[in-house]
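User:
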Amino acid sequence: MPLIKRNPFGHILFIKKLLIRYLGVLSHQRYKGFNTLDIEGSEIIKDLPGENVLFVSNHQTYFADVVAMFHVFNASLSGRVDSIKNVGYIWHPKLNIYYVAAAETMKQSLLAKVLAYAGSISIERTWRAEGKDVNRQVKMSDISNIGKALNDGWVITFPQGTTTPWKPIRKGTAHIIKKYKPIVVPVVIDGFRRSFDKKGLRVKKKGILQSIVIKPPMEIDYDNDSIDQIIEKLEYAIEQHPSFLKVLKTEEITQMEHDNEKRRFRKHKHPKED
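Assistant: Predicted structure:
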């Protein structure tokens, strides 16, 4: 047995653990202080197998979304239900959680490189580079790296490949699902765009109700579902299908705000157990 344990990508696990601990403590107040994070469905997490699980989610910021998921997943594995109260859960984090990110983004700063070491599978985008539209071939090494991560643990991906809502889902995600046959768990997030800047590093507004909804694993026929069928299922699962796009009436917006206030009041009146 090697003296220094590494993951399949060569990262030293002890260093990764220290980074996740540090980043977890540093970021906790962003979801349990400056703003409120409403969580639903976290009980699903603890029943998942330790590997070959693909989380698919809509995307609102570069980093705040995935950091919040690291918090929720680790809190759930430590026994908390729909809660990230008491950041002690991050002391023994799950070290085989990965997330798919654009290589260009993960090279932009020292902090981005630190976040990359904590779990990024950095890929080359085929449709966008340096702020311009491009048309490149998919790198097979990117696909195999995602497969390597699935074989080792859990992978978080944002199949639209952008923080802009209602954009089409990239076919690459459907190909990965058919090739590696992971358990696919949909996640729907909201509130991050309003509370953070685009990168998800700076708190833009306080007092925002953020939410993460974890849905049951999807039913996918890996052998018989077509790429287009899987894409459509993903669009509905993460609530980014065109049918969800509609102009809300004033009364509907008022009702949504009222419902958010009721959820906030319920959480304060009946705090969940750790």
